[in-house]
Every structure is written in structure tokens, then in C-alpha cells.
Design brief:
mainly alpha, 2 strands
Length: 225
């Protein structure tokens, strides 16, 4: 069952769409962010947990998470556009879920990611004892310390929003591969955002969105009967 579509201003939109964008821009915002984010996670720094290794990786650690922070915002747009395609952009699970993902995951990214990198980068000019002290403060931030609660909340928001879209796609009789891959996108992020979890989560979302886009394009190109 294909979601009906209307044409406005030369661009094709799902019926009831709340985001009326040019078709090329809509496609780019839907597909490019998850693809970039999936690729970026392959390069996520994963140094050994010791003072020297973290200091050596500190510049890239901070830079990586700044780049990821921008892509998280664009990723939220991608989710909302796909939700719009399924008629779920205004549903509370989508709104609350993607809001939690943006707010809490971004906060975690800033504190545990960029904060850790910048702190250890600044420690390069300190004595060995002082470097060890900084390391002891930040070493658990990405994992078991209090900031990790932000990651749990952000990931839960992703599961709610994207998992809800998978259920919506299934109810609308979308092809099985489409809603199944979308469901996997929701689950994979539970493994964390560094490779392989993040790459699988955002990569699966890209594949699901691409399946929808191809299906929509074929339906739009079909002659009227």
C-alpha cells in the first residue's frame, strides 16, 4: 500500500505532508545525513584507556564529536522527513522521541565527547601527576559515569522515534525489507554509537529511507490509469 502523494510547486509530497520542500532538497536531507553519520562512526576514536593514548587522540576526539554534533541535528531532520512520509511527523512518540534524541544525545556528545578531548588536550602542558589527575576525572565520562545517563536517554528517544516509524511502515503495508531494516536501525544504536553500532544504526536508517525513496519514485513515475 503506497502512501498517496500530491504535487505542489513542481515537487512531489506525500498527502498530508507538513514539510513542503523541493524534491531534490527533501531527498538530500533524507538520505545524506544518515549516510555521512554512518561513515563518520567508522572513524570514531577508540584509544586505549591510559593517559598517553587519550592525550594522543585528544584533538581528533574533540573534533570528531563536534562534527558528529552537527550531523546529529541533520539526522533528526532526516528522521522527521521519513516520519512525514509515513504521516507520523506530528505524532507524540515521534516528537518526544526525536526531541529526546537531539537534546540528550547532543548533551552527552558535548560533555563526554568534546569535553573529554578538550580536557586531555589541555593536559598536555601539565606535569605527569596533573595529567593523571585530569585523566581520572574524565576517563569514565563516556562510559559508567553520570554523563552516560544522557546517552541512555538520547538512545531511548531514538528507539522510540525510529522504532515507531518501523511499526507505522508495517501497518501501512510497506515492503517487509523497508520496515525490517528500519526496525534494525532502532535496535542497533543500543550497542552504542562508535563503530560498529552507530554505523549499523545510521546505515540501516539510510537503507530504509532509500528503499522508501525508490518506492516513492517508482510510484510517481507510474502512468495514471
Amino acid at each position: 500500500m503506497m502512501t498517496s502523494e500530491t504535487v505542489r510547486g513542481g515537487a512531489r509530497h506525500p498527502a498530508g505532508s507538513t514539510w513542503h520542500l523541493p524534491a531534490s532538497l527533501r531527498r538530500a536531507l533524507l538520505l545524506v545525513p544518515p549516510l555521512l553519520l554512518a561513515g563518520l562512526e567508522i572513524a570514531h576514536p577508540q584509544p586505549q584507556m591510559n593517559v598517553q593514548a587519550i592525550m594522543d587522540a585528544s584533538t581528533w576526539f574533540a573534533t570528531f564529536h563536534v562534527i558528529q554534533l552537527a550531523l546529529i541535528g541533520l539526522m533528526a531532520i532526516s528522521v522527521m522527513l521519513l516520519a512525514d512520509n509515513y504521516g507520523r511527523a506530528t505524532s507524540w512518540p515521534t516528537r518526544v522521541g526525536i526531541g529526546m534524541f537531539m537534546v540528550f544525545f547532543s548533551a552527552y556528545d558535548t560533555l563526554a565527547g568534546s569535553g573529554t578531548g578538550l580536557a586531555m588536550r589541555s593536559a598536555r602542558d601539565l606535569s605527569a601527576a596533573q595529567q593523571e589527575g585530569v585523566f581520572l576525572v574524565v576517563k569514565d565520562w563516556p562510559g559508567l559515569a553520570a554523563p552516560f545517563v544522557l546517552s541512555i536517554l538520547g538512545t531511548a528517544g531514538w528507539v522510540v522515534a525510529v522504532g515507531g516509524l518501523a511499526l507505522a511502515a508495517r501497518r501501512q503495508a510497506a515492503p517487509r525489507r523497508e520496515w525490517l531494516v528500519l526496525g534494525l536501525a532502532a535496535v542497533f544504536l543500543l550497542a552504542g554509537h562508535p563503530f560498529p553500532g552507530g554505523t549499523l544504526a545510521f546505515g540501516s536508517f539510510f537503507v530504509a529511507a532509500l528503499f522508501y525513496d525508490l518506492r516513492s519514485s517508482r510510484a510517481g513515475a507510474a502512468p495514471a490509469t
